[in-house]
Input
Amino acid sequence: MRRLHANQSFPFVLALLALGWHAGAAAAFAPQVTSDGASPRELALAEEDARAGDTSRELRRVLQLAGGGFIRAKSRRVGENWEYQDGAKWRTLDAARILDVALERDLLKEARRLEQAAGDDVAHRAAYAAWLCDAGLLEEGVDELDRVLAREPDCDAALATCVDLADFLRISAADPRSDAGLAEWLRVGAASGRALREIAVHQLGERSDEPTLRERLALELSRGTPRTRAFAALALRRLAPGAELRALSSRAVLDGSDDVRREAALALKAAGEPAVVAPLVRALGSQHAAVRANAVAALSVVNQPAAIEPLIDYLAAVTSAQGGGGWRPSGGYVFFGKQTAYVQDYDVEVAQFAAVADPQVNVLNEGVVLDVRVISTFSINAAAEARRVRAALQSLTQADPGDTAVAWREWFAANRARLEGSAPKTAANS
Output
């Protein structure tokens, strides 16, 4: 990629075009190469490059400004200044304000090459997003940051790029120190993508009164819309880690929104307190399967070693309910058929002194008897819960000793000292 500076001259590089072509019928059958072997396509591309070098042409360019920021629009050089198209109007820009000029097509071509080179690695994708933003391809850069933060919400490189963007991307012009202004910031931030939400939080932290902001965020966490609750949890996580832990614990397991539960769990993780595990572990005893599943997911996100042993105990309880070994579900027998009464014989001794003999009535059974075992929907849920618990344990420990609670207990007994030694020493567990 070649960056074109505003004060750079552009020599004409297509001397080959001056050679021309022979006229006449013979020219139609002439070999489609020039004297130096260039094809017509190569000549066309060279001519296009030469025209692109003419700064007076109206082409889409990215103009980097001295004060920060970019102008990405159709532009042209007029005398000593630049003009760019803003809607139907052309606006003048002093050339002294421009640090760098690049053709949009060249940047997009380089972006495609870098995207392929980045592959699927999060760190490489974050570096690619930073390059896009630095080159002035802000829309593509912000989209890439959204994808990176969706995979790794605390990616340092992506968050650093968001902080850099916050220097010249203003989320809202309202004053967040007023109630109406803060409400506007919360509304805009909640409606934005992941990268813009991070920028909004960063700018709120710089422009707001901290006690007032924290009080408002706690209020929005309990009463706002799902988007606002998720944004409030994010803001608490970035600006006041360790605050509102009780409300965040409740949201992490009881909120109906996946985004809110995840942001709340990430805020609990940012607190760095093993004590946040306790309310989540208690939620494992809920009679509602959805609450138990949410608690397992939250414990996986919080990533505290204190959650490992309770999850192993829960796995043992779940697998016992699911079944194993010689355990069989409760059951019984059911009969399908009909019964027919008939006289099998007469009681002779009784009939000897009686006018009528005493008949012996029997019953003929026709049908089938089945051995029935009740397999309830809880057995299916238990299998799914066991899978979720194992996945959470694998995420917490980066180990996979097996599918059974016994295997996990043996692994935990062998690694308990190491895990407890890695736990942070805080006021909650000191």
